[in-house]
Amino acid sequence: VPDAASLIQQLRALVDDAGFLTDPGRTAPMLRDHRAQYRGHALAVVAPADTAAVSRVLAFCNEHRIGVVPQGGNTGYCGGATPDASSSQLLLSLERLDRVRAIDSANYTITAEAGCILAKLQSAAADADLYLPLSLGAEGSCMLGGNLSTNAGGLNVIRYGMARELVLGLEVVLPDGRVLDVLTGLRKDNTGYDIKSLFLGAEGTLGVITAACLKLYPALRSRATAFVAVRDPAAAVALLTALRGASGDCVSSFELIPRVAVELTSQHIPGVVDPLSAPSAWYVLCEISSSRPDEPLDALLEKTLAAAFDGGLVSDAAVAIDERQRELFWRLRESIPESQRKEGANIKHDISVPVSQVPRFIDVAGRWVEQHIPQGVLCAYGHLGDGNLHFNVNQRAGFTAAQLQAIEPKAKRAIHDFVKEFGGSFSAEHGIGQLKVFELERYANPLELELMQRVKHAFDPNGIMNPGKVLRRP
Length: 474
Ligand SMILES: Cc1cc2nc3c(=O)[nH]c(=O)nc-3n(C[C@H](O)[C@H](O)[C@H](O)COP(=O)(O)OP(=O)(O)OC[C@H]3O[C@@H](n4cnc5c(N)ncnc54)[C@H](O)[C@@H]3O)c2cc1C
Prior knowledge:
Layout lengths: L3 H11 L5 E2 L2 H4 L14 E5 L4 H14 L3 E4 L17 E5 L6 E5 L4 E5 L4 H10 L2 E2 L12 H6 L7 H4 L6 E7 L5 E4 L25 E8 L1 E2 L3 E9 L2 H14 L4 E8 H10 L13 E9 L6 H14 L3 E6 L3 H12 L1 H8 L2 E2 L2 E3 L5 H15 L3 E8 L4 E8 L5 H5 L2 H14 L15 H7 L2 H14 L15
Parallel strand pairs: 2-4, 3-4
Antiparallel strand pairs: 1-2, 5-6, 6-10, 7-11, 8-9, 8-10, 12-14, 12-15, 13-14, 16-19, 17-19, 18-19
Helix pairs in contact: 7-9, 8-11, 12-14
Bound molecules: flavin-adenine dinucleotide.
The site of flavin-adenine dinucleotide has 37 residues, from strand 3, helix 5 and strand 10.
């Protein structure tokens, strides 16, 4: 059996000089997750330059049973891209596979490599007068391969779907080093099982995505955005229904924001101010958009809000008068996680229930939080249009982080039990990683879990791909 030093030497020979990373200044941030919840040690850190080099590395690791942890922008929330502490796993960064291979304007597609930063892809699409709708708070650093491997959601799901729904083709290196080339731009292709879809949301446990072909849309030419004080979450859902109907289903974002988030962001984030004069318990940040240049969306939004005001759903609203004001509204929404961090500890839940059930869920689970967590304050916000809430509990002033953390296991169990009762998901958009492996075992349909284990074994019989993530090691 070769020792570690010999394996490292052989790995070094499989990539170019720039692809073997040894500087601790570079590698240290790659060996912990974005929220510093997980820290690992790696046998080596490699960043291959192309698909052929990824293939050589995987074939070698498969032969020597070396665990491989793929990494993109390392912005994931579940520790999926962090190796374990054994110093026996390889960290495989995709950051150098960063080429846009093609844009086909008539086919409305972009083909790009896994290490492309999402914002770069959005710009490439915009330069071709097209629109890539995948958008999330981490878009300045997350990468395409990570987005697809986590089946990222984000801000435009209500209109365009999750990352999975944007994918037409994939190039994937299998654990044994063979390259699965299904990198087509076909919208219609009913030729047997849709194998590529298994890699989407697999969090690197089945193979390494090296490139993808994504759907694009006509560039957006009109947009209207409003920050709205709503009576309660039920009023927010009623407003969503009204706006979908009135706009011909042009709602691209519909975010629920509680008062506590407006207070936290105004307090902790420079430049953020409450857009409205009187406080309200709940708010909505909504956006409608169209590819038609002359669409009177502001007037349509104002008319819908006026009707909602008359109906008692809405007490106040500000429609953005220009791009600067729109950005201020979005800054408030997107800086909620940072303001929570600055405030202190928090317990996070990334849950979804059917949109129609959101008000009752907030009521039932919110009352539980109030009764059982005196050391915490509920901060439930997020993508209401998708039924997805970040149902977080923040540390209350006068209590310590340790006091809040002491109740975390009990809180998670209770909230996730409510989610199950409501027919929802305990992980709406962040995945499983290493954080929620036991939650998956507890809440997944047993037959579905068995099928996942069989798929894992069929694709990766030696168990080298991201061991211990999503599924427990056998
Ligand atoms: C400020 C902020 C806001 C966020 N907002 C959202 C949001 O609105 N919606 C949302 O869904 N998420 C959100 N996230 C979470 C995160 O950005 C997403 O999960 C993102 O898709 C991860 O991409 P990444 O490149 O950083 O992946 P990484 O963190 O590097 O990896 C994530 C997982 O994918 C695997 N992986 C990475 N690349 C590959 C590859 N090429 N092939 C196979 N496996 C691979 C890794 O092993 C790991 O399991 C947010 C994060 C932050 C920090």
